[in-house]
Amino acid sequence: MERVCVIGAGSSGIAACQVLSARGIEYDCLELGSEVGGNWRYQNDNGMSSAYRSLHINTSRQMMEFKSYPMPSHLPVYPSHFQIAEYFDDFVKHFGFRDRIRFRTEVVSVTAAPGGYTVTSRDRDSGEETSRVYRSVIVANGHHWSPRMPEPAFPGSFDGEEIHAHHYKTPEPFADKRVLVLGIGNSACDIAVETSRVSKRTFLAMRRGAHIMPKYLFGMPTDHLTTSPLARFAPKWLQTLSMSMMLRLSRGKLSDYGLPEPSHGVFSAHPTVSDDLLTRLGHGDITVKPNVRELDGSGVVFEDGSREDIDVIFYCTGYKFDFPFLDGAEFPAVSSEDNEVSLYRRVVDPDHPGLYFVGLIQPLGAIMPLAEAQAEWIADLESGRAALPPVPEMKAEITSYREGLRRRYIASKRHTVEVDFLHYQRELKAERKAGAARV
Ligand SMILES: NC(=O)C1=CN([C@@H]2O[C@H](COP(=O)(O)OP(=O)(O)OC[C@H]3O[C@@H](n4cnc5c(N)ncnc54)[C@H](OP(=O)(O)O)[C@@H]3O)[C@@H](O)[C@H]2O)C=CC1
């Protein structure tokens, strides 16, 4: 019973496997699909990838690469999902732990057991169930795969097709259709841009405005600016002011493109990154609408009272955090319907020693190197190099993190696990140091 179980072999799961391997900690990794890569494996046969055919990451290669294995320099600054999946394959091959991953294995339950956790899994091919007790469990099953539809549902009924962004793959099936895309996150912008090239009309409806960030500013990948020395040392208000000014200088006012001006600051919402949206709006190929008021048979009525005939609605309304193998009553820390999470430093469930979550964060930046840093801390804890603070202290940290979120971000189910890339890296480093001093 000295092993750790890693659930999922997506980007966070393989980051954890690599660190455990390097630190000599025995583990098994269980993966539902036939390949590594999770969300970044297009048409992943685990059914959990939300990648569409044209997807490119919206953080730069230098921001997303694992620190232990830089991305090859021949890759573009913003690689495609094909290139990212290949990079993950190479990562696993390079560190030689593919044989530690049990593919096509579904975790059906994790329950507390004396000294650890019983993990029950099912072989997808034989249907055979196996239970094994592990000392610790690292959950890395991703948080962008379980579709969240509008809540409450819009009144009325709709005769056309309703599709969540998770299921969108290519624009061709929507040629000559009247398409409505709902939301103003990254999925909504990408899907509206794509469908607008083939559709009869594309409408983009949103309940609030968003700051649209370009992929490049002044010839530099935008996230190189957000990790620049200014971002490292300047207070948040100064970063906000300078980014707002740079956006204003480079692309003018959003209302000039027909978008609502956001009423929140530029770092008060998860960034929406799109180079194409403003151009498509300028071409008149996307029409902006306010939120949906009601579904109306062959069309939709919007909050401004206008009505449009619509054939297809894309709900780009985000994702639910979903751990189908954890019973909500036993693990309330991650079982809120509203994506609220109660984890010490976004990783540790204070009430369940040895239960960790990797990659359950939404950075201004990329998850991968942060998942790697989280795994290093977990490895410290597992190898006895570091210890956790007392439970009340962990709970106080969770409360203060939540208060910080409430102060900074607009209230939305998409803003419950936000972290600043640099700040969170520093936080984990400090925690590892403090943890070592507690031993
Ligand atoms: N190229 C890339 O790297 C891509 C990355 N992503 C990432 O995937 C994650 C998920 O993105 P995405 O799928 O866009 O989801 P998000 O959760 O980021 O965005 C959801 C959008 O839907 C809106 N919304 C939710 N409920 C309603 C409702 N009832 N009525 C109207 N609007 C509603 C939200 O508004 P509100 O803010 O008001 O809640 C928000 O605009 C993000 O981390 C994103 O960055 C996604 C696509 C591409």
TrEMBL record:
GO molecular function list: flavin adenine dinucleotide binding; N,N-dimethylaniline monooxygenase activity; NAD(P)H oxidase H2O2-forming activity; NADP binding
Main location: endoplasmic reticulum
Any single GO BP term: lipid metabolic process
Pfam families in the cross-refs: FMO-like (PF00743)
Enzyme class: oxidoreductase
The EC number(s) this enzyme carries: 1.6.3.1
Function field: Acts as a Baeyer-Villiger monooxygenase on a broad range of substrates. Catalyzes the insertion of an oxygen atom into a carbon-carbon bond adjacent to a carbonyl, which converts ketones to esters. Active on diverse carbonyl compounds, whereas soft nucleophiles are mostly non- or poorly reactive. In contrast with other forms of FMO it is non- or poorly active on 'classical' substrates such as drugs, pesticides, and dietary components containing soft nucleophilic heteroatoms. Able to oxidize drug molecules bearing a carbonyl group on an aliphatic chain, such as nabumetone and pentoxifylline.
Family of the protein in this entry: Belongs to the FAD-binding monooxygenase family. Belongs to the FMO family.
Name used for this protein in its record: Flavin-containing monooxygenase 5
